[in-house]
Amino acid sequence: MPAPLEGESGMRAIYVIATLAAVLLVPALARCQPPVPGATAGGTGEAPKALPPGVLAQFDLENEADVQGWAPLVEGTTLSITHEPANVRQGQGALQFDYTPVEDYYLFQRGGLQVPGAKSLSFSVKATEKTPLLYGLGEGDGSAYDAFLELPANKWVDVQANLADLQLRPGSVDENNQLDADQLATVVFFDLCNMPGEDGRALGWKKGPQKLWLDNVIIGTQEVPSVFRTEDLPNGKRRIVVADFESQVVRGLDVGGAVLDLVPADRGQALKITYRVGPERWSGVVLGLGSLDLRGLEQVKVRLKSAAKAAVNLVLEERGDKSHYERLLDLEGNGAWHSYEVPVAEFTLSETSEDENGQLDPGELRVVIVVVDTYNAVVDAQGQGAVTADDIELICGPAPGATQERTLAPETK
Ligand SMILES: [Ca+2]
Ligand SMILES: [Ca+2]
Ligand SMILES: [Ca+2]
Ligand SMILES: [Ca+2]
Q: What CATH class is the domain 228-396?
């Protein structure tokens, strides 16, 4: 890739984030072999406890021995069981991750899972400071699937995720490109702050001792509501709601120093992106697209409002080479909501990005990015400004080649 242009580093960083994570994580997984095979009922090393119906693995993290099998992957970081009531979500104990981040990859994992038939992952998590958190599952051969969210400071958050909503981590390979529950071996939690280089600059740095608590990790056979809502439209098309921001936390990551807040809006909640003029030009949010089938994508919709003139870049990122396609939207700054409907054909390859086939491949998209151009935005006396976003939707027609697949389908049965 070309060297980053002056001021473009924030943008570039967005698309190197996960690559480095994958590079580091795969060897990390290799050097941390599953230590307690089959200990799916809490890792005590004793005979597995009886599990409730629909539960394939459960970590209630109640006793000191329950830390067995959980492994921090960076030297100088530790895992233990805490009994401090405020830091326990349920029962008498929770897992405590202690780390004083410098520049590294701060993550921990539990191996030894055996969860064929798994459909969902749930857990409760809390951190001392605001944390961009990646969570996910890994197949035994290292293929990694994950999602991320913005964890607020010092507040328990209960997370439920469908395995179908997790996405193959860029840089991670899977021979069949799908998450196979019968091959899952590892669950991982990763504070994305303090990563080396561009990643650290994009996702932020923390200083001083940090703690992260985890409780009630459950892998089950029950599907939970998807974070993506798909509706069939009367014209035969599909509407996929990527984000309506009606959740407890932001299921995305802030980049370029943005502060993300869920705020009351005309339709429930919306996402307020507060940006600041600083070293990073592009400031905003990255939203994952899970394992959605986006072939046939025709249009990207978003509602935006801003009290001052602002330029917002709507970016689609392919997995693999992480080609960036973008469409700049000019906000009038009249404080009113405005709906933007951008045909896919209007997205152009970013100047700082390359694509091996020179075309936007909707089936390859992994994230949507909404970022404000802080170099060309109005700010207040404190150097701050804000843009509010809501209802990020994708409109898809029939996938190209779908008819052919349907014809072929009976032969495969
Ligand atoms: Ca517990
Ligand atoms: Ca697979
Ligand atoms: Ca909303
Ligand atoms: Ca492409």
A: mainly beta
